Amino acid sequence: MNDGEAGQTGIKADSAHSQLIAISLSPASPLGPRAFFSSSAALPGGALSLRRLPQAASFYVRTSLDVASCEGHKGHKRLPAWRRTQWLSARMAEHNVRTVLDQDRQSCTGDSAVVLHAHLIMAASVGPAADPGYVSVETRPGGIAIVTVAKEPVNSMDLDMWMRLDQAIAGLEADPSITAVIIVSGLKKDVFSAGNDLMELYAPKTTSERYARFWVAQNAFLVRLHRSRLVTVAAIRGACPAGGCAISLCSDFRIMTPEGSMGLNEVQLGIPVPKFWGLLMGRVMGPKAAEDILLTGRMVLADEAKRVGLVDAVVPAEQLLAVALATAVQACKQPAAARAATKLLLREDFCTAWEAYFPTEPSFGWRFLSSPSTIAVLEGAMRRLSSKGGQKKPQQPAASKL
Amino acid sequence: MNDGEAGQTGIKADSAHSQLIAISLSPASPLGPRAFFSSSAALPGGALSLRRLPQAASFYVRTSLDVASCEGHKGHKRLPAWRRTQWLSARMAEHNVRTVLDQDRQSCTGDSAVVLHAHLIMAASVGPAADPGYVSVETRPGGIAIVTVAKEPVNSMDLDMWMRLDQAIAGLEADPSITAVIIVSGLKKDVFSAGNDLMELYAPKTTSERYARFWVAQNAFLVRLHRSRLVTVAAIRGACPAGGCAISLCSDFRIMTPEGSMGLNEVQLGIPVPKFWGLLMGRVMGPKAAEDILLTGRMVLADEAKRVGLVDAVVPAEQLLAVALATAVQACKQPAAARAATKLLLREDFCTAWEAYFPTEPSFGWRFLSSPSTIAVLEGAMRRLSSKGGQKKPQQPAASKL
Amino acid sequence: MNDGEAGQTGIKADSAHSQLIAISLSPASPLGPRAFFSSSAALPGGALSLRRLPQAASFYVRTSLDVASCEGHKGHKRLPAWRRTQWLSARMAEHNVRTVLDQDRQSCTGDSAVVLHAHLIMAASVGPAADPGYVSVETRPGGIAIVTVAKEPVNSMDLDMWMRLDQAIAGLEADPSITAVIIVSGLKKDVFSAGNDLMELYAPKTTSERYARFWVAQNAFLVRLHRSRLVTVAAIRGACPAGGCAISLCSDFRIMTPEGSMGLNEVQLGIPVPKFWGLLMGRVMGPKAAEDILLTGRMVLADEAKRVGLVDAVVPAEQLLAVALATAVQACKQPAAARAATKLLLREDFCTAWEAYFPTEPSFGWRFLSSPSTIAVLEGAMRRLSSKGGQKKPQQPAASKL
């Protein structure tokens, strides 16, 4: 799916009376096509299906439907235009788009002309990136892949990184020979990731629109990871705050080094913990214990993390990858399709609710990011990071990036 | 509710303008009437009520409504036929059916003729079975009943067994002198149950339609057990995989012998763990700990089961029934109606979601059962079981029936 | 918001074609305006917004909409009147009321005249109470408030007390200098609260309508407490059954004295545990462990309460307030807005579901309260309490008030 293929990618209505919806996809980054489109078609009761999109492509579409008119057989009735907006994960594209239209048809049956407006928020290619850069993928015997993230000095997570991660996992999911993935830091320092790049959150240097794209990109990746068909292991060497913690919580297993620390420390920077990140921690260690940690923004050290169930094991750094690999091998011993289906069944309600929350968060979060107090806190944090040359001390989570 | 009574059982509309819906119930098995029916009536805005059905009867109805026409006072308008399907637990029959129609009326108000098609999936009689067979009921002083299941050699669960269990519990619920029930294995071997009969899952020997009935029958029983007004105790002697584990998880208390083992080991046979069985285990021991066990299909031995909260107590086999009885007596000391209502309130959302999932699972599950790889795994399991003369070793869950 | 201001408080439609809905609020108690109103307006597709209501006012509105007529452009169609009822928390008033009407418009589009009937169940003033009485508020340096409840002999909770508590917390929430609140008993005896006043539950001395108001008042307070922007600490000296336990469970932290005991012991009086009180206990200690306690109505003593996570700390009575203050100070160290937003995000789904349950419970609960067996149990409890001069022994929860 590159620029040249984009013309063949499309949404097509399968009703006999429907018109083809032309979709123009244009690449939004060197990583591959990430496109915005807007299309419409008259669909007299037909169902849409997304065709010719790569199986593993991840994209989120905001749709709205206008019922332009509704004329009865013997009389006439004009419904005022109404619209309904929903974001879909089109990972299971045909199914989901059908669902939406089925629901809509309940309200707009008849001969009404239904005009669909679809707005694609994000799509990630499954092909190899033009420049894989700091996110590298290595495969080991037995179908286990290792994704190494090495963006010096602290793996700060910007829009580009979240999209590279999404592309890496999507690529592995599309490869039938792969059954497990281990995510590991390739940094010189003992840091899994320092969390989101503050420049994505610092209002004077970004926009609410950029923030919305950033927010969807990171959470789209996290949802993908959480319901991945792959066995997923986070191998955590060192500090793992905020966004790094979210990646870990979305994985099936978490292995940490003794020097490690983990937490969603957003509150310390004056930013709310993303709702579903907090709920995810509650699923791992119970809602009350999670709240106690989340509301103070406290980082949990390795020993406590093991005791409260936040990590599965604590092992020395030199054994980290070996234990992660052994964990993956052990987890892969049973029939893969049944295991993946069971995992999906157990997590699907949570992930569906998370995706339904996508359109809500950006405006809510931006209210905090654009407030003078949050801007001041972020400026303080950036000054401290700058004076340390971008370093980050694991035990001082107040200075963490998010 | 036998064949003779079936003519009196019916769905009747309580609107003055409504027509009586005649329902013909015909017995589907020697255990009592299990009927399929299809009926319709013009219901101009009226509400349905299910009448003359035994209080404890358990049945699931798939309904669909057709709005055949809708004519206004001064004009005319014809809505195209639409349908909506919902499965109901008619345990609280009047309430639920009203609800469905109330919702429907929001969409089909007016003078439209609403045609109801109802399709009864399963109904269990509350009377004594013509042949109680291997599921026997004994009552003890203090209103405690013991349901013994003894279908040699391993209590393999087929459609017949799930319906007998449903009938047994329904009968006890309908008897006001009964306040608690203990479910126990009467097998010669140390086996609570080896789980579902593989013949119900082996695609070449069943059909997708039979599987759907089987699936609804087992889960209808499990939901009934989970929200029963009775105090429920599973007394588990020996191996308790899959379906037997589901019965235990739906009970209020689980008492196990030291030789016992418990788990939902479906993944080992290449079949997904039924969604709500897995969620149920998560409610007992936390979602993360449950996932770790479920995704590997691991059986948990007695000591660990006690430690992680999967069972309430581990006691020698010779004390099993005495401890189960004492547990039931203790739990029955408080006012029964308040206790049952509290239990129902705490579990109703879960059970309602579970029932709403009934129509979804069979087609999803059948995709796995009819796949060549699952068929091959089941054939291997059946060969191993056959070579052992139907025996089952608790410590070898890979050979378990489901 | 007093009697004089009530005339300015109103619901106003923001559509150009809408009529102003006049709302007459009249004070219902010396504590401030608690009003019932009924209003209507023709709203051709407009959205309502609640204006000029104090930010912190808590009120619950039961609304119903009548579609009186629906006339099309070229034809005519008359929809029969239908109604839909929903309770709203108007804390985020504008948002919620819009939502309701948006949903309604889906069903009643067109030129129909939509008649809104709104019935305000409870509104609490944010100003100082005319007579604060036995609920006193004291503020400490650092923005920490202490709410002391001292209604001798056992802080029995009647409608008046729940409304005073709601008013006290609402007042603190409206004061930007306050960041935390500690709730403590000022009784002579070691009792946090003996729970609801039996006279509110004893059917011969109350009415179903009074009970409905009582039920909404207490749960409206509890929901407010649970999602309060304030850090909340329950400092529990002595017995803490039922309603007192509910207050504790809604708080962020629970500190208890060694003589303390806690539980939702409703079942012992023949009354179901309120659904969301029970679910709340499940969130703190897990659903299975909570059910075991709830279904027997057992009171948990301090040591066990600490062990199972029902309380955060057990400290001698002379240190109780100091530890509660230290807990509040510690919890307040991080940015308040981010902490409050995170807390709200984590609890909002639970609180929203709880509020949606408000209209359901009163008729359900009244069925129990008006049954001869519950009346007899309550009469026995009142006789025992009367013979002890209103005393309550913590270890005898069967004699507890609710």
Strand content of chain A: 15-25%
Tally of contiguous helical segments of chain A: 12
Briefly note the structural class of the backbone of chain A.
alpha/beta
Query: Care to count the β-strands of chain A?
Result: 16
CATH superfamily of the largest domain in chain A: 2-enoyl-CoA Hydratase, Chain A, domain 1
Oligomer: homotrimer
* CATH architecture field of the largest domain in chain A: Alpha-Beta Complex
- Approximate helicity band of chain A: 25-40%
Radius of gyration of chain A: 22 Å
Largest interface, Cβ cutoff 8 Å: B-C, 31 and 38 residues
The side-by-side strand order for the widest beta sheet of chain A comes to 8-9-10-11-13-16
Strand-and-helix sequence of chain A, N→C? HEEEEEEHEEEHEHEEHEEHHEHEHHHH
Q: How would you sum up the major sheet of chain A?
A: 6 strands, mixed
| Count of discrete structural domains of chain A | 2
Termini Cα gap of chain A: 32 Å
Shape of chain A: globular
**The first-level CATH class name of the largest domain in chain A:** Alpha Beta
Q: What is the third-level CATH name, the topology of the largest domain in chain A?
A: 2-enoyl-CoA Hydratase, Chain A, domain 1
**Which consecutive residue ranges of chain A, at least 5 long each, have pLDDT under 50?**
1-59, 62-130, 390-402
What's the mean pLDDT score of chain A?
72
